[in-house]
Design a protein that fits this description.
This protein has 186 residues and is α+β, with helices and mostly antiparallel strands. It contains seven helices and five strands; from the N terminus they run ββαβαααααββα. Strands 1-3-2-4-5 form a five-stranded mixed β-sheet, sandwiched between helices. Helix 1 links the parallel strand 2 and strand 3. It comes from Rhizobium brockwellii.
Amino acid sequence: MTTTSWHADPLTWGDGPRSFEAFLEPTCPYSVKTFNKLDDLLSQAGEDKITVKIRLQSQPWHMYSGVLVRCIIAASTLEGGKQTAKKVISAIAAHREEFEFERHAGGPNMDVTPNQIIERLESYSGVKLKEAFAIPDLDREIKWHCKYARQNGIHVSPTFMIDGLVQADMSSGDEVEVWVKKALGN
């Protein structure tokens, strides 16, 4: 049996001493709102002052959450690593409702298979995911995200941590300037 070596690129940007972690579920509308602000956060705070980390927070009421989280992690194993994963997250964000169920339990996606979801995401992102999605032990990385969230008491998305501490007063509705001030302690 041949073992294929793979590496999931951490979903981190910037290299500053302050850590800003966002726990996101890819189809959650509030997580999408948060994701769409992260580049601005990094730009305003400064890549030398902050490290932005995306932690994937799969949630079972978002019915295809597990499939999409696996797609994102699979993308991080491909050429381009975290930038390829970011393209996949961006595609999900831009077409969120096409990866979700109506009121979490109905609608057109009731008749869609996981393979069709992957093909849809490949079409929107331009990233070929099927082979990486099938990496037999890719679940070890998925489990890491899950265990990390659980050990930190994370239940909902988005949830924010700064330097390892949950920030219960932060929200996806906050202006980026508020996040910068809070993250940098200004």
